[in-house]
Write a structure and sequence with these properties.
Strands 3-7-6 form a three-stranded mixed β-sheet. A two-stranded antiparallel ribbon has the order 1-2. A two-stranded antiparallel ribbon has the order 4-5. The chain is built from eight helices and seven strands; from the N terminus they run αβαβαβββββααααα. Strand 4 and strand 5 form a beta hairpin. The protein has one domain. By secondary structure, it is mainly α. Helix 4 crosses helix 6, helix 6 packs across helix 8 and helix 7 runs antiparallel to helix 8. The protein is about 35% helix and about 5% strand.
């Protein structure tokens, strides 16, 4: 048993073996992304966060607890913001997604190589703009099973024949960026589809919407210099000026944006495998008990796991896309820029631990190396 299982053995406001009630719409929210405003590769949040930017107030979590009902219910409202003045942050927001018609890839452009992924079972198609609800734990035993013994941990990512292209995302027109990122999602789908199906899960295909001005979402108005995964519609959003968060010398480097997107897709994997909701249960309980530090620790476990899943994908496409040691060095350098400025803003982990967990993924092909919920506190600080 993990120490946090002993500490949070009973739900707040409920009986053992049942899920506790969500915070009221007027309660202080949870989670977090980073330096008091936004933080690096942020986590999904069910409700407004005390760590979110001033004035930011997404609607409270609306999904009812308890056993899932046969009828489709509104998806959970969560947010992860990737926007800060000096620190890279990313968000998960419940926003309205628009379906995109993706042009077929070409041999010279980004995306999967035709005929090169026959064993991976995924068939390229349009994004799923009305995905089914993910699995939701209804007992504490299920919560622990999703976090500690999830079937996804036993799977292996195949090598994916995928070219990431040479588009300079810091200067390309918005339409080209959106096309590139949507085709890039096909690479992510090729890598993750088979392992997810083998683990017994569905994997809807998210779209990427690139926006050029603050966008009004279900979580409220989202600023520029931002990127986020939405659990409300299970789509991804990317601000056209996101790269301006980096120093000028880094903006044209390959794999930076791709790594950010792979991290956000990692939140999609967590959401579709029950890990996200399960982590949220413990985090909410810690917050309700006034244990903010423990709540932050659960947030870091979620975020550091997404970093590790990011690394797994980069490893899966490394051979075909020419991912070099220099590229790896550049990707790791992002975490120095995104390091928390104070202990209170440390909701994603130190630069050292973020590098450690993405490197865990880069050196492996199985999500089993991403068990942040079994790691000691120092490894998720």
């Amino acid at each position: 048993m993990q120490p946090w299982q002993q500490q949070f053995a009973q739900p707040v406001g409920g009986q053992a073996g049942t899920r506790f009630a969500p915070p009221s719409p007027n309660a202080p929210a949870i989670i977090p992304f980073g330096p008091p405003a936004h933080s690096p590769f942020g986590p999904p949040a069910h409700a407004p966060s005390p760590f979110a930017p001033p004035g930011f107030a997404p609607p409270a979590y609306q999904q009812p607890w308890g056993a899932p009902t046969p009828a489709k219910k509104p998806p959970a409202m969560m947010i992860i913001i990737l926007s800060v003045s000096l620190v890279l942050g990313i968000a998960v927001a419940a926003a309205v997604a628009t379906g995109l018609n993706i042009a077929p890839w070409s041999q010279s452009g980004p995306g999967p190589v035709p005929g090169g992924n026959k064993g991976n079972r995924y068939t390229q198609g349009p994004p799923d703009t009305n995905p089914a609800d993910p699995p939701t734990p209804t007992t504490w035993d299920q919560v622990d099973a999703y976090l500690l013994n999830n079937p996804i941990y036993d799977q292996h990512l195949p090598k994916v024949d995928c070219r990431l292209g040479t588009l300079d995302l810091s200067t390309a027109p918005t339409e080209e960026i959106e096309k590139y990122l949507n085709v890039f999602v096909d690479c992510l789908m090729y890598a993750w589809y088979g392992p997810m199906i083998d683990a017994g899960y569905e994997l809807p295909h998210p779209s990427v919407t690139v926006y050029t001005e603050p966008i009004n979402t279900r979580c409220g108005m989202e600023d520029m210099q931002n990127a986020f995964y939405c659990t409300g519609d299970q789509q991804i959003y990317y601000a056209q000026d996101m790269l301006t968060l980096f120093p000028q010398s880094m903006r044209a480097l390959p794999y930076l944006v791709e790594s950010v997107l792979a991290h956000e897709f990692g939140h999609h994997i967590q959401y579709r495998t029950g890990i996200f909701d399960s982590s949220w249960d413990y985090e909410t309980q810690a917050q309700e008990q006034g244990q903010t530090a423990e709540a932050m620790r659960f947030n870091r476990r979620l975020e550091l796991q997404a970093d590790c899943l990011d690394g797994l994908f980069l490893a899966a496409v490394a051979d075909s896309s020419g991912f070099t040691d220099e590229d790896k060095k550049n990707v790791l350098s992002m975490y120095d820029i995104a390091a928390p400025s104070t202990p209170e803003s440390d909701d994603h982990g130190t630069a050292t631990n973020r590098k450690n967990w993405i490197t865990q993924g880069l050196n492996s092909d199985t999500p089993g190396v991403c068990r942040t919920y079994e790691a000691n506190d120092e490894e998720v600080s």
